[in-house]
Design a protein that fits this description.
nine-stranded mixed β-sheet; six-stranded mixed β-sheet; 3 domains; Immunoglobulin-like; single chain; 24 strands; alpha+beta
Length: about 450
């Protein structure tokens, strides 16, 4: 077999002649350096071969002179004609190869072949790439799951839009056309973005929602993104206030108009298609949507607050955690239940009693840990180091994951109890939340006076 480049006999002869002119220490150093070059070259070749295998080279699909067409997608969730594939949004991702990563939802058995139809600039030519269909592993037995549809972008092409089709041939006139986000680098506009998914079930826990958002702001959050399926009329008024304030951004999430959704996380053999209103797909979209504009992304629910115990806010906490844990991209915080069925008479604010929802300041008793039961976790992540996420952990990431000790921070989760039979004496009184009571009461009153009261 003929060896070329770094593996050719000619290269070795020349390297040894050159090294042989030096002192023996220099010879050894030179040979080691040469070996490093060879292994580096072989790793590069291996990576290129893997990339070529996963992503076949794009081919021109349109006749000469034909320009990109198709109808711009109008909705956050777009069904393809097969009704087995649902596109949320494409994102440019050059962390490994120059690819377009389309966040979507597919039927894990029925969808076996998809193609990206790229609209290339500046000539408007159409190029087609076969997609790698990567259904996320945390599907929890539902037939549909969050999916990455990944296509290698053509060389000498900066596509602005892409269409997804089951075939490499056909007419693009009727295909929905999606703008590829994250094409241009941006500077961070915020430090922390909270992703809440999904708001459904005519959500009406108004008081606790306002308290959570105001606590987020006290802790350093500038943006809260909500994937909203539906909520009460009163909750709509509150959301409108926060949108106008610039704190909340709403992503419409009408997933139940496409699939039979479950309010459970695990498949119950009940004919539903996807769990918890497509929560995992929404979380992944939120990560990519904020990849270039937020330093950190917080994945949690509206009734959960990551409470720092050693630091006054998230910025100082994360600065300390990053310093102690370099090259870490995922920080996991332990969830602790503060049952809403156990209350204290403190902070019984009369004006708040007329507002539907839970007053978290009155719930400062948490359930003890259960033997042989691991408390679930939620995360603060560096979005640029995450490829795929589930609800309580990431599935693929470039950086390390670290469990944050409970004496540094915990998740305050006020909800129905998990250990409902425990007497009050068995609960742990934890008033960490009260450190923020003055600021929180003032902020909540301001919002209520402008929205509800």
């Amino acid at each position: 077999m003929e060896h070329k480049g770094l593996l050719s006999p000619k290269f070795w002869n020349s390297a040894m002649i050159h090294c042989g002119k030096k002192h023996i220490f220099a010879v050894v150093t030179c040979v080691l350096f040469t070996s490093m070059l060879i292994f580096s070259w072989r790793d590069t070749q291996l990576q290129n071969n893997i990339t070529r295998k996963l992503f076949p080279q794009p081919t021109v699909a349109s006749p000469a002179g034909e320009l990109c067409r198709g109808k711009p997608a109008q909705n956050v969730i777009t069904a393809l004609k097969d009704n087995r594939t649902f596109i949320i949004s494409p994102y440019f991702d050059d962390r490994e190869s120059k690819v377009t990563r389309v966040i979507g939802i597919v039927h894990h058995e029925d969808v076996k072949q998809l193609y990206c139809w790229f609209c290339c600039q500046p000539d408007g030519q159409i190029y087609v790439s076969k997609a790698k269909i990567d259904v996320h592993s945390d599907r929890f037995e539902f037939p549909y799951g969050a999916t990455d549809i990944v296509c290698l972008e053509p060389p000498n092409c900066d596509p602005t839009h892409v269409s997804i089709h089951q075939s490499p041939r056909g007419n693009t006139d009727q295909l929905p056309r999606f703008e590829i986000k994250n094409r241009k680098a941006e500077t961070f506009s915020v430090d922390f973005t909270v992703c809440i998914s999904a708001m459904f079930g005519n959500y009406n826990n108004v008081l606790q929602f306002i308290q959570s958002v105001e606590m987020y702001k006290i802790l350093g959050v500038q943006k809260v993104m909500i994937y909203k399926n539906n909520c009460s009329h009163l909750m709509e008024k509150v959301l409108k206030f926060y949108i106008e304030e610039g704190t909340v951004e709403i992503i419409p999430w009408p997933i139940d108009s496409h699939l039979r959704v479950s309010a459970e996380w695990r498949f119950m053999q009940d004919g539903t298609h996807i769990g918890y209103y497509g929560q995992i797909a929404a979380l992944n979209d939120c990560i990519y949507r904020n990849m270039q504009r937020s330093k950190f992304v917080v994945l949690s629910d509206a009734d959960e607050i990551i409470l720092p115990l050693k630091h006054p806010d998230w910025k100082t906490m994360m600065s300390s955690l990053q310093e102690q844990n370099p090259r870490t991209g995922v920080f996991l915080f332990e969830n602790h239940i503060f049952p809403k069925t156990v209350s204290t008479p403190a902070f019984n604010i009369s004006a708040w009693n007329a507002v539907p929802g839970v007053n978290i300041l009155q719930h400062v008793h948490r359930e003890p840990d259960r033997k042989d039961v691991i408390n679930p976790k939620k995360m603060i992540i560096d979005p640029r180091k995450v490829v795929q996420t589930s609800v309580h952990s990431v599935l693929r990431a470039y950086g390390k994951s670290v469990n944050v000790p409970m004496d540094v921070a915990l998740i305050y989760h006020c909800r129905v109890p998990l250990q409902g039979n425990l007497p009050r004496e068995s609960l742990i009184r934890d008033t960490t939340l009260w450190r923020y009571n003055s600021s929180l009461i003032m902020s909540v009153n301001k919002v209520l006076n402008q929205t509800v009261l």
